Amino acid sequence: MIRSPTSPPTCGSRPWACVPGSTPGSWNCFPASGACTPRPGQPDRMTTMLSRLYRLTLSLLVLGCVINTPVQALSSDRDQPMHIEADHADINDQTGVHVYTGNVVVTQGSMRLTADHLTLQIEAGEIVEGVALGEPATYKQRPDNKDEDVYAESLRMEYYAGNERIILIDEAEVTQAGDIFRSERIVYDVARDVVNAGEGEGDRVRITIQPRNSQE
């Protein structure tokens, strides 16, 4: 695990953004939307933080498969620079808890994730859990060979690396090509490619399927 300075990267409460540099392991950090200038030495911590966020973002890409037909993320997205913005970041290497609050935005290629609050649990340099909260938290990405993006949203999004599951909780909704899949809880088993919805008592699954043009 890469060790970083003990003090978390702070730049007031204004947003910042970073993109990969020209050499391996380097990052170019710059103020976003009039943000202040980072302190000297701050990019080293951002390197650690963003490399871990990169793993989480790749995990969240599988949200494009929530509808029960195989949907692969746009293959070129992983080769694009990742941009991350938040009003505040609180990093604790001792506990492994990373917290990002206020207008959290993660983008990479066609992928975009937004939340009011993002928490990551890090163990041995790897993300074991991630929780995004929002009103709602949102996700979108353009799948390969598709003309439209996949959209997902819920008040709470959870990722568990141990059993490879992504869970959308409270007002969960996934939309692709006009088809809408809704439930209070949607669980996607990444390893088995299985979707489970409507586990709560009285919870109902609602699906809207748009008619297809017969000439398509």
Automatic annotation (TrEMBL):
This is Lipopolysaccharide export system protein LptA. Pfam families: LptD_N. GO terms for molecular function: glycolipid transfer activity; lipopolysaccharide binding. NCBIfam families: outer_YhbN_LptA. Signal peptide: none annotated. Keywords: Periplasm, Signal, Transport. GO terms for cellular component: cell outer membrane; outer membrane-bounded periplasmic space. Its main location: periplasm. Residues 83-192 form the Organic solvent tolerance-like N-terminal domain. InterPro entries: LPS_export_LptA, LptA, OstA-like_N. The keyword Phosphoprotein does not apply. Involved in the assembly of lipopolysaccharide (LPS). Required for the translocation of LPS from the inner membrane to the outer membrane. May form a bridge between the inner membrane and the outer membrane, via interactions with LptC and LptD, thereby facilitating LPS transfer across the periplasm. Coiled coil: none annotated. GO terms for biological process: Gram-negative-bacterium-type cell outer membrane assembly; lipopolysaccharide transport. Belongs to the LptA family. PANTHER family: LIPOPOLYSACCHARIDE EXPORT SYSTEM PROTEIN LPTA. Component of the lipopolysaccharide transport and assembly complex. It is found in: Periplasm. HAMAP family: LPS_assembly_LptA (MF_01914).
